Each structure stands twice: as structure tokens, then as C-alpha cells.
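User: Reviewer 2 asked us to show a designed sequence for the structure in our supplementary figure. I'm pasting the C-alpha cells here. Could you produce the per-position amino acids so we can include them in the response letter?
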């Protein structure tokens, strides 16, 4: 049977539990009742699709309406998550039918102009017009070699450990201040925080419960936090090394950032600190020996414009632009054609045009470049962007780039955070 022979529709309240368990099963996971309750609280059933075979859910995908910090502002974004197809029903076009239904809904009802997801497998979503917009750095830090430069400014604040209930309002306050200035960070509503801070023992992989370290200034204001666990790793000789797994770190100032890392590096009986941060993470520059931090880049948030004109007009650019983009989008044909992007310091307009094109590219390349991370010149070097007017490529590439590399601080496939 093909996708057209199955029923595709939204999930009802009664069907949510079986649907969520089916999605979890596609990832090899179980769902406790508590986890199901957290997921339900974060889920809009009106934007949650399922494919049914003889009344049973065999595939699904959900949209979580969020906002995302982009260059120059904050935009609504359709967060695509909880995507799965049962192994019994793969390779029948079901995933394609769900992706098309989601994007068509965004277009027809003029919802969010951008869709975003964090794929479990990077090779899947390019064919649906998504491109890798942020990268992360998986860092392993040798705690024994983390010696601070003598000019490091740690400020005069303090770091203290708190219980979860006391820490949460402080974390929320710090996160909201950081996210509005950090490209790639989404908003978090209470349901998202509940998922992010859920600490179920069967999800820890043998590590400890979460620890909550909060940085405060002398006047009592919270200006940073680190969420972490203790774990261990084999040392190659039958023993083990202590490991601190940093789940998330946010800081409102460079002093709070440095103080939190000094705290983490001072934890006893630990050899390694693991953390996934930004590509341009400041930590190595604070150390006498930068090689104490080993890093491996990995793709994280993938974006695609659901509406090219509204998406491009919703961010700001580093240079004045008057550029015509010839966009190819076979999956969302309403985006096909030429778009004139005119940008100044405080305003951006993007409209349809019949003028000659300066650059030719697909929606996936626009998605990759949208947050200012992946450069258009790098995509052109790979043959994915074509310069049609000499000089247009370097100008456009510089205009799309941001002050710092964008990055995404959490997971987007459920658990959503």
C-alpha cells in the first residue's frame, strides 16, 4: 500500500497516548505516564498529524509553535518534532505526505514563515527543503589541563547549588535574557521547561540526577546557570574516569560565563567535562592551554522557508542589499521564482519580481544560510549556489552572516525543549 491508501489526519485526545507511544517506539524508547503527561501538555493536537492503518497510528509528526531569535529580531517558527514512521510502514511515501501536509498548511493559512527541526538522521530532510542552519561543538575538556589565563575576569559573583524548585525561576529568568540576544535560541513556555528539566531515572544512562548551579551577582541577581550530571567513563585499564556532563549553560555576562566554567573545572574526582556548545565557544580562549578542549562539530537545527518572501523580510542583514534571488523549491512550488530582497539597517522588504536574478539557489540553501551560520560562499564552492551577476555572491554572503555563529541549546525531537 502507498501513502495515499492510508488515512492522514489530526490526532484526537483519545488517540494521543497510542500515537505518542508509537512515535517513541520508532526511536527505540519507552514512555512513562509522567512523560506522556509532559508531552501532552506541550502538544497542540490541532497541529499533530497521524497516519492510520485500520484505525491504528503508524506514523506521525507534530508542529510546536515557537519563537526563534534570528539576526535582528525574533520570529515565529514552526518547530517540527515527534516525527516517526513505524518500521512496518516505511518506504511507502508516508513521511513525504506528512512533510507536505505540514508545509502546505503553513502556506495556505499564512502561519509561521519558517519551519525548523533537529533531525535524528541528517540525510533525511534535505529532500524536503531543510538546510543545516546551526552547528554545535561537542567538547571534551581535560579538567586537569584547564588552567586559566591570568587576565581572566571572573567578576565578584558567586556560584551556588540549588534544588530544582528553587532553581527553576532563576533559570527561566536567565534564559529569557540570553535567548533574545543569541541567534538560534527558541522561547520556552512552562510546558517546554517541564520537559527540559524532566529528570526521569531511566533516562539518565547511569548518570546522577541533574545538578543546578546558579551564578549570582553581589546584589543577588542571577546572571548564569549550569545544568550538569556526574557520570563515569572507562579509562582503558579496567577502571573509570569521573565525568561531568554539562547539559546546558547560559550566562548574561562574560564574567558569569568564566565563573561557571571555573566552578565546573573545580569539581573534585573528575577527569573530563563533556559539553555541547557553540562553534565559536569562548572557553578555549580563557585557558592557558586551549588544547585542553577537544571539539567535534555536529549539525543541529535545520531550517527551511515555508514562505520565502515573509521569511527573508523577517530578519535583518549586515549590509545594505538590493538582491534578486532565483529560488528553486520543488517541494513547495509556491516559493519558486525570483524574489527581490531589499535591506537597509532597520527595514527589509522581499517581494516577487521579474528583474534579472543575481543568485540562483534552492530553498534548502536559504534555510542553511538564514541564521547567518552557513555561508553562501561555502555553499557556492560546493556548487549549491550559482552567482549570476559578478560580485553578488560575496556581498550577499557577507550580508547574511551574523556577528557570532548561531547555535541551538537543546533538543527539538521530543523531548521538546
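Assistant: Here is a per-position design you can include in the supplement:
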Amino acid at each position: 500500500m502507498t501513502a495515499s491508501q492510508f488515512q492522514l489526519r489530526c490526532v484526537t485526545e483519545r488517540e494521543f497516548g497510542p500515537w505518542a507511544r508509537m512515535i517513541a517506539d520508532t526511536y527505540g524508547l519507552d514512555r512513562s505516564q509522567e512523560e506522556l503527561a509532559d508531552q501532552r501538555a506541550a502538544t497542540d493536537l490541532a497541529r499533530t498529524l497521524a497516519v492510520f492503518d485500520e484505525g491504528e497510528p503508524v506514523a506521525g509528526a507534530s508542529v510546536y509553535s515557537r519563537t526563534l531569535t534570528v539576526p535582528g529580531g525574533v520570529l515565529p517558527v514552526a518547530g517540527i518534532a515527534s516525527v516517526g514512521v513505524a518500521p512496518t510502514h516505511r518506504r511507502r511515501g508516508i513521511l513525504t505526505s506528512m512533510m507536505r501536509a505540514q508545509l502546505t498548511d503553513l502556506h495556505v493559512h499564512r502561519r509561521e514563515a519558517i519551519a525548523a527541526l533537529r533531525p535524528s538522521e541528517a540525510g533525511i530532510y534535505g529532500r524536503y527543503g531543510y538546510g543545516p542552519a546551526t552547528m554545535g561543538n561537542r567538547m571534551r575538556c581535560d579538567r586537569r589541563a584547564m588552567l586559566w589565563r591570568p587576565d581572566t575576569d571572573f567578576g565578584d559573583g558567586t556560584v551556588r547549588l540549588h534544588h530544582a524548585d528553587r532553581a527553576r525561576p532563576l533559570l527561566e529568568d536567565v534564559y529569557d535574557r540570553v535567548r533574545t540576544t543569541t541567534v538560534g535560541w527558541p522561547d520556552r513556555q512552562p510546558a517546554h521547561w517541564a520537559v527540559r528539566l524532566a529528570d526521569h531515572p531511566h533516562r539518565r544512562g547511569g548518570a546522577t540526577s541533574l545538578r543546578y548551579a546558579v551564578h549570582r551577582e553581589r546584589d543577588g541577581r542571577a546572571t548564569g546557570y549550569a545544568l550538569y550530571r556526574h557520570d563515569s567513563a572507562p579509562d582503558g585499564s579496567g577502571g573509570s574516569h569521573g565525568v561531568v556532563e554539562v547539559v546546558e549553560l547560559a550566562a548574561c555576562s562574560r564574567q558569569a560565563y568564566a565563573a561557571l566554567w571555573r566552578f565546573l573545572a573545580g569539581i573534585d574526582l573528575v577527569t573530563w567535562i563533556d559539553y555541547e556548545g557553540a562553534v565559536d565557544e569562548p572557553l578555549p580562549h580563557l585557558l592557558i592551554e586551549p588544547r585542553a578542549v577537544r571539539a567535534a562539530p555536529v549539525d543541529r537545527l535545520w531550517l527551511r522557508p515555508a514562505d520565502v518572501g515573509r521569511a527573508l523580510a523577517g530578519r535583518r542583514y549586515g549590509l545594505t542589499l538590493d538582491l534578486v534571488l532565483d529560488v528553486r523549491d520543488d517541494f513547495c512550488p509556491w516559493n519558486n521564482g525570483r524574489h527581490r530582497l531589499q535591506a537597509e539597517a532597520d527595514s527589509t522588504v522581499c517581494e516577487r519580481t521579474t528583474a534579472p536574478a543575481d543568485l540562483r539557489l534552492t530553498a534548502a540553501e536559504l534555510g542553511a544560510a538564514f541564521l547567518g551560520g552557513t555561508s553562501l560562499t561555502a555553499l557556492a564552492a560546493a556548487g549549491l549556489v550559482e552567482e549570476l551577476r559578478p560580485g553578488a555572491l560575496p556581498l550577499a554572503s557577507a550580508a547574511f552572516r551574523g556577528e557570532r555563529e548561531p547555535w541551538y541549546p537543546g533538543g527539538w525531537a521530543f523531548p521538546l525543549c
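For the response letter, you might also mention the following. The chain has a mean pLDDT of 94. Residues 164-179 form the longest helix (16 residues).
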